[in-house]
Structures are given as structure tokens and as C-alpha cells.
Amino acid sequence: TRPAATTMADGGFRLRAIAPDPSVSLEARKEGFVTTRKHGLSTAEGDPRPVTLVLRRGLEARGSVSDSQNQPVAGVELRLERRVRSDPQMSFSSGRDESAVPAAVSDSQGRFSVTGLEPGDYTGRLSREGFAGKTIPLLEVQRSGATVWPPFVLEASAPISGFVRNRKSDPIAGAQVYS
């Protein structure tokens, strides 16, 4: 795991167990703020040099999730991936997933809110047990005003079961099966 620290009341932090390195990257994140990164910091033995990371409030986007009968679905996890412009022709490639944890989870009414966003385009991935996963290829976060995404509809999942065997029809234990 990466060394981590939580800031104190004065915003101060101290990371320990950082190996001497000519190019260290730091990242700061807090709910409601845009994640910030500082690259190319040099560490050396002894007292660390003070570093200031500036967090700024992010934007908010809201939405809702229902099933095919228009009933709200609670507990749907939404993961967002920032889309990054990759070439002069304005095509897009997906940037890295900002977090392994969901950006939001829908409430009992199927509603969710995501804070700490930058303006721009995102790809959304919705998941909940009992429902087929869904990818929303383009979700826009507006620079100003409220961003309200259209309602998302999840379809109930259909299980598939079977067996994995070798050519002699012997069972193969421990095999991973994917769709």
C-alpha cells in the first residue's frame, strides 16, 4: 500500500516511510473537492521540505436509477472515469478510474449525488447484484449550474450456469468463467 496521512485541523500532514527518490508524486483528495496531484518532488534523508497541495471545491452532478418497471433501485454503485482528450482531432480516450470505491451509491428512492467533479466528460459504470451492469459512455458535467443526468434504467440480470470440464468430461475445479 502507498503511504498515506490524514490532514490535521491546520491542514498539515506528514507522510512517513517515503524512500529517497528524485521524483515522488503526491495526491490529496477529500469528498466534495477535486483531487489534486503534485509530481516531481524530490525526497532526501532528513527533514522533509514543506509541500502545499491546493484542493478546490468540485462540481456536483445528480441522477437516479430505476428498473425496467420504473421502480427506484437502491444500492446501485456508480463509478466514474474521467474522459481525457487524446489527440488534436478531439477524439477521446478514457483516463484512469479515479477510485476503486464508488463515486456514489443510490438511496432508497434510486437517487444519487456525486460531488468533487471537474467540468468535462466522464464514463459511468453502474452495478448492483441482481441487475445487469451498465456503462454510460458519455456523461457531461457542466461548468456552471446544476448538472442533472437523465434517469438510468437497469435491467434484471439473468443467471447462466453450467460446468467446466476437460476433453474426458472430468470436472475442472477452480476455473474462472467470464461473460
Key terms for this structure?
single chain, 179 residues, mainly beta, 5-stranded antiparallel β-sheet, 4-stranded mixed β-sheet, 41% strand, flat
Model description:
There is one protein chain. It is built from no helices and 13 strands. The chain is mainly beta and 179 residues long. The strands form four sheets. Strands 6, 7, 8, 10 and 11 form a five-stranded antiparallel beta sheet that branches. Strands 5, 9, 12 and 13 form a four-stranded mixed beta sheet that branches. Strands 1-3 form a two-stranded antiparallel ribbon. Strand 10 and strand 11 (134-141) form a beta hairpin. The radius of gyration is 22 Å and the shape is flat.
Ends distance = 30 Å
Q: What is the H-and-E element order?
A: EEEEEEEEEEEEE
Low-confidence stretches: 90-99
Mean pLDDT: 87
Structural class based on helices, strands and sheet pairing: mainly beta
* Biggest sheet layout: 5 strands, antiparallel
Shape descriptor reads flat
Q: What fraction strand?
A: 35-45%
Global Rg? 22 Å
Total number of β-strand segments?
13
State the helical fraction: under 10%
Number of helices: 0
What topology does this entry show?
Layout: E1 21-28, E2 33-34, E3 36-43, E4 56-57, E5 59-67, E6 77-85, E7 92-97, E8 104-105, E9 111-117, E10 120-127, E11 134-141, E12 147-148, E13 152-154
In short:
This protein has no helices and 13 strands. With about 180 residues, the protein is mainly beta.
